[in-house]
Write a structure and sequence with these properties.
Layout (H helix, E strand, L loop, with lengths): L5 E2 L15 E6 L4 E5 L3 E3 L2 E5 L4 E2 L4 E3 L5 E3 L5 E4 L4 E9 L2 E2 L3 E6 L7 E2 L1
Parallel strand pairs: 3-12
Antiparallel strand pairs: 1-2, 2-5, 3-13, 4-9, 5-6, 7-10, 8-9, 10-11, 10-12
């Protein structure tokens, strides 16, 4: 399984704004493109980092505005509601936002989750 790592901001810069927990960046620990069959699920993962690049225990939330998929805002479990189209999910912590994770949806008869 291929994992893409994306750092949204440079963790080493002392001038970066942070939240109350000292978080200055979110690192996506999941692929940025996933193919998902209708009814199948995929769990997204991310971690919060402080200015020194250390992992911070912080409540990352997940969100989508799409109607083709649903995401549990706490666990990051994404489920495909439709068998065609695309959907995007984004990690968030305070004012920090992660990159979009793009889900390409396919009919249920073709299989489960696959990484692009």
């Amino acid at each position: 399984m291929t994992r893409a790592l994306l750092v949204l901001m440079l963790a080493g810069c002392s001038s970066l704004p942070g939240d109350a927990d000292g978080v200055v960046s979110l690192e996506l620990r999941s692929p940025v493109a996933v193919t998902l069959s209708q009814g199948a699920s995929f769990t997204l993962q991310a971690q919060a980092l402080d200015r020194n690049g250390e992992i911070v225990n912080a409540p990352i939330r997940w969100r989508t505005a799409d109607t083709t998929i649903t995401v549990d805002s706490v666990s990051g479990v994404v489920t495909a509601l439709q068998g065609t189209g695309t959907g995007t999910v984004q990690a968030a912590l305070g004012t920090l936002r992660g990159p979009d994770v793009v889900f390409t949806l396919q009919p249920a008869a073709t299989g489960g989750a696959a990484l692009d």
